[in-house]
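Hey team,

Filing this mostly as a record. A colleague (T.K.) asked me to run one chain through the structure pipeline before their review meeting, and I want the input and output archived in the tracker in case anyone asks later how it was produced. No errors, nothing strange. Just documentation.

Input sequence:
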Amino acid sequence: MAQINRVVTLGEFIIQNQNAFPYATGELSALLSSLRLAAKVVNAEINKAGLVDDIMGKVGTENVQGEEQQKLDVYANKIFIDALEARHLVCGIASEEEDSYVSFEKEVNNNGKYIILIDPLDGSSNIDVNVSVGTIFSIYRRVSKVGTPAEMQDFLQAGNQQVAAGYVIYGSSTMIVYTIGDGVNGFTFDPTIGVFYLSHPDIKIPAQGSIYSVNEGNYPYFKPAIQNYLKFCKEDTPNDIRPYSSRYIGSMVSDIHRNMLKGGIYMYPATKKNPNGKLRLLYECNPMAFIIENAGGQANDGDERILDIQPTKLHQRVPFYAGSLDMMAELKEFING
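Output structure:
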């Protein structure tokens, strides 16, 4: 009889590979389990969009970045905060949807060795038109004294201090993709039994891709070097794979997930309106850069490696370029002149 290959679940994979984690292995497993549970709850709610009126549309308030909050932004934010607080392993959380970090009030949480930074629902404005959205998360060891409340210094760590990072993509299928610094693996959700299965082991970004992802509506406001690179992407070269294909969804998780699997470059440059960039260093760029580098790609702000940038504030913004090594090298030539 032919042998049947048994599919590995996310929970089993975490346990099997927890020895790769340099700190407390059981704690990492519990943390990822909390994120997995919250992702299931958010996924169920997202799948109701269009059927239940009270989860669609805007709340009528703005977050600290001046962006209008969607109802699902607020909902997802609460779900993740509650799930992480309940495990008592996290002393605090910083969210894109919160003005400041949240230091959990229960004394037992003060003994938590970790902090979490999270974008609860990236691309939420696309919910109404049925476009894929996602969650991005980042895990750090706290630097303040265990047994005391979380402090600002715990959250203002460079990305190279991350111990784990990942994203959830809610699309035609729901996936969790994460790394603990030794490779990247993806797990697809089976809604019939409520389990994530290993579907994309050891993800590697192709060194050369044929996709570039950027909001070309901002082209007039890009620096000349970026404009010239985009012209290069569109050139018809018989002895080359150009012109590259332009693919831009407008949901960072979705755009980067596609490029991770197929090869490509994602760009969110500085503009005249946003000279420091628009994406958040702590909630979006650092975790995505950690994932991309562990998959064999590269991420920078046009000059400095993203993971080496020292944050100075919670909602700091930076330009962001990430993707296949060869395409990142091409971009660098244009930026350096």
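Quick notes for T.K.: The longest helix spans residues 25-46. The two ends are 63 Å apart (CA to CA).
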